[in-house]
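Entry for the shared binder. Reason: the reviewer on the internal report wants the predicted structure included alongside the sequence.
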Amino acid sequence: MFYRPEDGHGLPHNPFNALVSPRPIGWISTRGADGSHNLAPYSFFNAVAYTPPQIMFASTSAKEDRGDTKDSVANIRATGVFCVNIVSYALRDAMNATSGPWPRETDEFAHAGLEKAGCESIDCPRVAAAPAALECRLTEIVTLKGAHNFLVLGEVTGVHIDEAVLAEGLVDYARYEPLTRLGYKDYARITETFALTRPGQ
């Protein structure tokens, strides 16, 4: 089949994000200007540069109590910092519990029964049980075409890695089974990997 997005797809559900998969999940923790804490998952997330290390995530909807966006972007606008918590399979239910459209005063850490840990290079909480976390300083928020679409870019200023996921100095995915987002209500976990050597290396 072929379809133009502006004409519709004719399928029971939009296939777009099912085709762009699997996607890593950026579990974004933020602090509001008032000191409140927020935690929410975003599957439009990835690394975008090595030196300096930089990441991106995109927010694509809004809440009535936040105007043109959601809690994460509103907090980042106010404080300029955020943390990306890596989601393991073991944390799938807690991650899902933080994905609801909760009121801005809701502390999703408490709602999901998650312990907070402090960051080192920024003033923001992180998920203590996460296998890894990336502390970030905002570099730019880009307004994308369409309503409520914002691309958030950040420079990684600190990296936390649980030593339990390291094997001979390398991150061992099988030790924490990264959770990935597919389409619809579907997720997947990474349980095995294989290596390919690039030509010329």
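Summary line for the report: The domain at 24-163 is CATH 2.30.110.10 (Pnp Oxidase; Chain A).
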